[in-house]
Amino acid sequence: MTDVYSPEKRSAVMRRVKGRDTQPELKVRKALTRLGARYRLHRADLPGKPDIVMPGRKLVVFVHGCFWHGHDCARGARVPKQNRDYWLSKVARNREHDEAHRAALAAKGWRAEVLWECELKNPGLQTRLAALLTSAPPARPLRR
């Protein structure tokens, strides 16, 4: 079965898929700002280039799209009918990379949290983020 789009149209569609500043990521950043959290974005010196980094708390947050990272929700479990083998191996590679990045971060003393795209629709997002912020220890004691 062939693709419903021409190769040029498919290429244009795939070019529009963003890797940073996505709507789910912006939603998490807005919620963190409302909570008064300070953070940095996409630090290249950390494994996996986390979406949100809070150096003072040694906490990183990855905002994962369910489809691209193979979440076990309805959207993440969907596999395109076209080029099925390619997509299965691509998502499997993404999951392997994600696990390796989390392990490398843990080895460096960072705590890595994953927020899934489907979880951001829950009204408890603000509560979960607040719990993450209160459970992370501060980096250094205050000097007097």
List the helices and strands and how they pair.
Elements: H1 7-15, H2 23-34, E1 40-41, E2 52-54, E3 59-64, H3 66-69, H4 74-77, H5 84-107, E4 111-116, H6 125-135
Parallel strand pairs: 3-4
Antiparallel strand pairs: 1-2, 2-3
Would you kindly provide a written description of the structure presented here, covering whatever features stand out?
The termini are far apart. The longest helix is centred in the middle third of the chain and has 24 residues, at about 85-105. The chain has helices at about 5-15, 25-35, 65-70, 75, 85-105, 125-135, and strands spanning about 40, 50-55, 60-65, 110-115. Strand 2 and strand 3 (about 60-65) form a beta hairpin. The mean pLDDT is about 90. The protein is an alpha+beta fold and about 140 residues long. It has a single domain, classed as VSR Endonuclease (Endonuclease, Chain A, 3-Layer(aba) Sandwich), CATH 3.40.960.
